[in-house]
Amino acid sequence: MSVETILFFILAAAAVAGAVNLIVQTHPIHSALSLIVVMVALAGIYLLLGAELLAAVQIIVYAGAIMVLFVFIIMLLNAGKEERTAISRTATWLGLPFAVVLTAVLGWRIAMAQPGPMAPGAEIPGTTRVLSQLLFTNYVFPFELTSILILVAILGAVVLAKRDF
Amino acid sequence: MNGFLANYGGILIDLVKVVVVMVVLLTVVAYLSWFERKVVAHIQSRWGPERVGPYGLIQPLADGAKFLFKEDPTPEGVDRFVFFFAPFLALALAMTTIAVMPLGPQVEIFGHPIWLSVTESHVSLLVVFAITALSVYGVSLGGWASNNKYSLLGGLRSSAQMLSYELSMTMSVVGIVLMVNTFSLRDIVEAQRGGAWHWFFLPQILGFVCFFISAVAETNRSPFDLAEGEQELVGGFHTEYASFKFAMYFMAEYAAMVSVSFMVSVLFFGGYLSPFPDTPAFHWTYYLPAAGGVIGGLALAWSGLRYHTALGRMILPVLGIVLLGVGMVCGLPAVMTVIQGPFWLAAKVFVVLFIYVWARGTLPRIRYDQLMAFGWKFLLPLSLANVLVTSWLVMLRLPR
What we know:
The complex is a heterodimer. By secondary structure, chain A is mainly α. Chain A has two domains: 1-82, Four Helix Bundle (Hemerythrin (Met), subunit A) (Up-down Bundle); 123-165. Chain A has helices spanning 3-24, 28-48, 52-77, 89-112, 127-136, 140-162. In chain B, helix 1 crosses helix 2 (59-69). Chain B contains 14 helices and two strands. The N and C termini of chain B lie far apart (58 Å).
């Protein structure tokens, strides 16, 4: 086994363990921390695939900015442990069968999948350049739309914060 | 054996690099505390550490031993896992940034071409920011897990502060990225080749000011050390920490200082490049590391002979002679080319660290609302203006 394969299995195990732990934990902070583990493990997998930019951005945006905000809010609200309740009836009758079907379909598809060719451009040293050229030519309209969406969100936050109650 | 080296030689070289960099970094971190205490003491007309060894030089070792043998109580009602884990996280993250720093150009050691850095990445600047972004957790989680109002307040304060100043810190280097068209720290250094007047602190003076101030705030250092404002918060986020966990927070703070100093030198002061241009007229500057070692060693040995304790009279001359020997080795042609990069980088990092300590010795801590207003209403607009002006100038210079 190559070093990459070993690292992939370690990272994949960390991601899955983090995801399971996220659901199992009762304290919000512990769940948030587990989510961070998932994000960082995903960034590690991106690194293994040669997508250094994506890995760095994944950590800066998700693990660094969004999750810090989550943790910050949980601390500010001083959210305590959640109580474990019996599983709801909707979950039993709708959720469980759906989960079984989803697992089966996914497992079947993964088992059937053929390893495809390497994505072109994955090993090109200037991925930042390639990405930004794509962003500002082919995808410039969605890109600008997203920035307007973010601007609107910022304005909304300011308005909410300034409102007199 | 040859087959083994052929297969695993690369990994072996990487391991050696990691070990060397870690050992040097930890030593620097330990002696940085001594350096800070000494400098601040002299600013305040005191002597500083003086009793443990000559000039208090063995103080860091004594502190380390003390931290190891102190009782390590875990207060009632803490979140045990997070309480235990947060200092590790803080220290590990603070020490990781050094991995992507270019420590020197490609050199030949025993005939092997070796890049002087732990690892290379073409987005190393972003990697540094990613690690900095994560370092909020060490402080805020430690404060939260302690189950103590003061710790929680300290943790929350510092997370808010680090989040705010991270923005202006990231924005202030965009100017450089625009000028160089790359995220690679090595390429940024190489773009500054040709002498001190090609360094980026001149065209990017605004960016430099913003970056340095935000970096001081980002590392929770004075005058922005609100996280541990002892008059208000006892000890801030590490109030409940003792023994080696406290030492880890302590080391994390100093390691973060070191990596920020590396960033300042690499981004704005030419990193491992010499301040002199690379022309034959300036080849004598290659002997500067050797000359520094020889002169410093002689001076240390000479003054050590007249030190006022017997131990000092024994240790200091030996240290001086060791330094002299190191200086002479640096004069050998083979070593001289290898040592140039690390020497200049270390010199620059040392100067930046001194400015850090100097600021702590002279500036009063600012108030929390002032801190936030300064970050959001002054530094962030300033760094954005810098981005605007730089992109405009870069656009004017572009070939049409």
